């Protein structure tokens, strides 16, 4: 039976590109996959947490904009999900329009993250254009008709899918722009060189130092730390941490047991690897 | 001469409410103030950094959605700005519409953060409504006309300013929703019980532990830690930290000097207090 993969849709989003990459990778292991687009990241994760799909592929971090906070908050909530693997997608933004040149463009539609990632280019080339947010880069294309005053920022892949001409590409300010996605399911994680976890701490001075010391003393390196509000009051946080370590190793298990003692609630989302998947040029 | 205050506009935004509160507080100290709305947080901060206005009032953290990353990223960039004080504004969202009841509403416009903060209420009361993002809660009101199928989420203050009826209020999922704003200028900060700083670290294992140990050993409590990407590559971060300490104190100065030695670049944005400003009911 085909593996069902939930992702933020519709066709043409970067989340769909990541889900497709993972589906291609599964096919190489002789597993068939079917893509299931959802209107939000939250709904993709909920579908996987409730077992309505086998897998969810969701963005967790962009190299320019930072953490995708919706994903972190949802993972704390749906804590039966485990990270199976990660994959990294290069992100490239293009200006799409029916206009012949960029000069007539007065209005540009795109997802707020894409608009932010092209801010410098827009200030230089289209300083007077009005920027209008949309729910996804694909949704932005719905605003394009034959009006040459309208532009949209989306991927080259979306341009080709929806047959819209590209006026300029790439237009992102940071050339090494990329997004890390997590592959999540209800299965136990299979282990790997990275472990992701989150914890809350008791509200006492230095409460965060002790857990970090435990990790440092076990020679476990942190590759990321992110704080998120508990949503109860200002100043009350959860901490999301990525470790360069495999939770299947006895020494790491000992450190995690110690971590349980010096945190309030600890949730380990699994150990996994970054999949070495080559990304075709047509995907970015 | 009146003190000029930059804020995210137009009239009716929460940033304008915070700027107005600060202007009222200045008037009590016999200083006149004039409000200068800007189309983005970035442009408000830039105006203050270039000396085009005296002060910028910008949101830095919401109790539900977390850090306002634009503000942190811009402050690292415009590092001549210093925090003069902080103020806390309770946030209350209302559903505005020309409809007589909520039933006919099919489309709701608002800022993505406001839509996110009312997610639970919307799922219960208007599960099929289409949610459309706008650049500000005030901009959402521009989409309201006499069409009873359209709604907007904004503040009660905006409803009264623009004379739009309130259909439901408050509709935010977390009743204690509030946002902390910073008051920034080119003046040296005047001291207070909180200090905000940011630093980059060398890419070596445990690089973050050492700075946190320095603070713990000096008995300085962290009230917040936030990581932000340097935007160069995935896994390369800046850390923004709030301390419960006054950088004018000799012991804190000694800890900061030690911090300089174990970080790559350290920027101290000043010591300040949260202003005890009462918020009128009409402001939320």
Could you walk me through the main structural features you see in this protein, from its secondary elements to its overall organization?
Two copies of one chain form a homodimer. In chain A, helix 2 packs parallel to helix 3 (69-77). Chain A is built from nine helices and 15 strands. The two termini of chain A are 30 Å apart. Chain A has 284 residues and is an alpha/beta fold. Chain A is globular. In chain A, the strands form two sheets. In chain A, strands 1, 2, 3, 4, 5, 11, 12, 13, 14 and 15 form a ten-stranded mixed β-sheet that branches. In chain A, strands 8-7-9-6-10 form a five-stranded mixed β-sheet. Chain A has two domains: 3-90 and 178-274, 3-Layer(aba) Sandwich (D-Maltodextrin-Binding Protein, domain 2); 94-168, 3-Layer(aba) Sandwich (D-Maltodextrin-Binding Protein, domain 2).
């Amino acid at each position: 039976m085909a593996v069902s993969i939930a992702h933020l849709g519709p066709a043409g989003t970067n989340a769909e590109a990541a889900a497709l990459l993972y589906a291609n990778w599964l096919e190489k292991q002789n597993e068939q996959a079917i893509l299931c687009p959802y209107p939000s990241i939250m709904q993709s994760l909920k579908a996987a947490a409730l077992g309505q799909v086998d897998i969810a592929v969701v963005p967790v971090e962009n190299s320019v904009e930072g953490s995708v906070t919706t994903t972190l908050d949802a993972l704390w909530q749906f804590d039966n999900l485990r990270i199976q693997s990660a994959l990294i997608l290069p992100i490239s933004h293009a200006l799409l329009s029916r206009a012949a040149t960029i000069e007539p463009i007065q209005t540009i539609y795109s997802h707020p993250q894409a608009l932010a990632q092209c801010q410098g280019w827009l200030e230089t080339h289209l300083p007077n254009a009005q920027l209008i947010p949309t729910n996804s880069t694909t949704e932005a294309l719905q605003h394009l008709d034959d009006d040459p005053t309208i532009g949209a920022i989306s991927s080259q892949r979306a341009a080709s899918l929806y047959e819209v001409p590209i006026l300029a590409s790439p237009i992102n300010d940071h050339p090494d722009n990329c997004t890390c996605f997590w592959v999540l399911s209800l299965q136990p994680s299979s282990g790997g060189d990275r472990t992701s976890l989150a914890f809350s701490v008791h509200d006492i001075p230095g409460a965060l130092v002790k857990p970090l010391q435990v990790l440092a003393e076990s020679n476990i390196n942190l590759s990321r730390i992110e704080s998120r509000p508990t949503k109860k009051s200002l100043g009350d946080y959860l901490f999301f941490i990525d470790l360069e370590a495999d939770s299947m190793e006895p020494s790491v298990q000992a450190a995690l047991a110690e971590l349980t003692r010096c945190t309030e609630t600890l949730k380990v989302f699994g150990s996994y690897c970054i999949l070495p998947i080559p990304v075709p040029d047509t995907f970015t």
